[in-house]
Amino acid sequence: MEVPSEIGLRMAHDMKENGYLGAEVDLHELAHLTENFNGEELKILTMSATSFALNREWKVDLFDLSKSVDGGNIEVTMHDFLMALDEVKPAFDKDIITMGISRPDAMLQCGEAHKCILRTGRALVEQVKQSDGTSLMTCILEGPPGTGKTSLAATIANESGIPFVKIVSPKNMIGLQEPKKVAMIEKVFKDAYKSPLSIIILGDIERLIEYSRLGPRFSNLILNTLHGKKLLMIGTLERHILESVGLLESFYVHLEVPMLRSGDMKEVLEAQNVFEPEDIDNALQALGPEMPIKKLLMLIELASQGGGEKIDVDHFCICLADIKLSAN
Ligand SMILES: Nc1ncnc2c1ncn2[C@@H]1O[C@H](COP(=O)(O)OP(=O)(O)OP(=O)(O)O)[C@@H](O)[C@H]1O
Predict the structure, then answer these.
(1) How crowded is residue 11: how many other Cβ atoms within 10 Å of its Cβ?
(2) What pLDDT was estimated at residue 187?
(3) Which residues contact 107 (CB under 8 A, 6 or more apart)?
(4) What value of ipTM does the predicted structure carry?
(5) CA 15, CA 76: separation in Å to the nearest integer?
(6) Distances in Å between the alpha carbon of 273 and those of 25, 109, 150, 266, 278?
(7) In which region does residue 204 sit, left (phi positive, over 0), alpha (psi from -120 to 50) or beta (all else)?
(8) Which residue, among 29, 41, 39, 25, has the nearest Cα to 75 in the 3D structure?
(9) How far does residue 73's CA lie from ligand 1's centre (Å)?
């Protein structure tokens, strides 16, 4: 059983104090299910579960409205909470961290470099969890667009078992004004600091915000507010931007996420099982020495459309040429 979140435990404690929590309610399960809820969201969840209990208990007899209703009998059950959980969702649902990869188990093996990054990521997680000397670990995954940086960060966070995971991504902030974005980022850090152990993923830092605005607050946010709490922060960025915005020193560990090389692409093609075995080498030859995983997956999808079970390698080459043309 994982350590339930501080907030979840607090909520369960409050309800017990108020004496209307059903005896069968599994507090640990409940705390586990509400790991990514903030205080306000927990209040709303509790109100929703209570209203389910009220609806059930206060069965009004429409044929005899003079009958009184006994409010003292209200008991909020686990079932009420489960129904409330269907309705009330946290702003930063843990599922968000799997963005890009809709299911963590859909993460493809694609070469030694990716495996090595995952291994290092796991080691960093263990260090933050176990070392008394490490309260803050910062790691940057740097590499060209579409190389799988965010997916790798999400996989590390997903596997970590750390209940409090927040992702800050430009995709969550489309259309927001700069001050609102800064406020959102600050809130994520403040929320994280309420948990004894947390992970924050900062996706595409350069697109998040104009760094000069965030910069001065950023170091304060990370360094000054920890107060004995433990945090692993994983950022994703392209290297030249990392240098140009002067962020290089803000991250202790730098991991390079490269494009897929021929051997890595072979691993992906074989796993996808989209070519006849004898066509794989021809396809690899057409693909050239390297390519970001995003582009390779897009190409496979494009070439698979409307065809049979396997992709015809000539058709694949035409799709590849189309993609190259449109990129120019
Ligand atoms: N190992 C993998 N298995 C399956 N799909 C993957 C894998 N890595 C990345 N992808 C897919 O490739 C796409 C790009 O991945 P991701 O967003 O992680 O890359 P990125 O380097 O963060 O991109 P950008 O620089 O554009 O932000 C996503 O759609 C994701 O689903």
Answers:
(1) 21
(2) 77
(3) 101, 151, 155
(4) 0.97
(5) 9
(6) 46, 13, 25, 10, 12
(7) left
(8) 25
(9) 52
- Which ligand 1 atom lies nearest to the CA of residue 151? 18
Quick one: DSSP state of residue 3? P
**In terms of Cα–Cα distance, which of 123, 127, 150 is closest to 257?**
150
Which of 99, 101, 112, 298 has most ligand 1 atoms within 8 Å of its beta carbon, as the pocket-test mutant?
101
Count of C-beta atoms within a 10 Å radius of residue 106 = 9
152 CA from centroid of ligand 1 (Å): 8
Highest mean pLDDT among 204-213, 271-280, 300-309: 271-280
| pTM of this structure | 0.70
Give 174's DSSP letter: T
| Cβ-contact 204, 242 below 8 angstroms | no
**146: alpha, beta or left, given left = phi > 0 and alpha = psi -120 to 50?**
left
Question: How far is 293 from 288, CA to CA, in rounded Å?
Answer: 13
Residue 252: the pLDDT is: 87
Tokens of 12: 């369960």
Token duo for residue 272: 């996808």
Look up the CATH architecture of domain 6-90.
Answer: Orthogonal Bundle (1.10)
Q: What is 95-256's CATH number, 1.10.8.60, 3.40.50.300, 3.10.580.10, 2.60.40.1120?
A: 3.40.50.300
| Contact status, residue 90 vs residue 36, Cβ threshold 8 Å | yes
Domain ranges of the chain: 6-90, 95-256, 260-327
Q: Is 258 in the pocket of ligand 1 (CB under 6 A)?
A: no
Position 266: which residue type? K
Better-scored residue on pLDDT, 286 or 237: 286
Of 263, 255, 178, 190, nearest to 220 by C-alpha is 190
CA pair distance 140, 153, nearest whole angstrom: 9
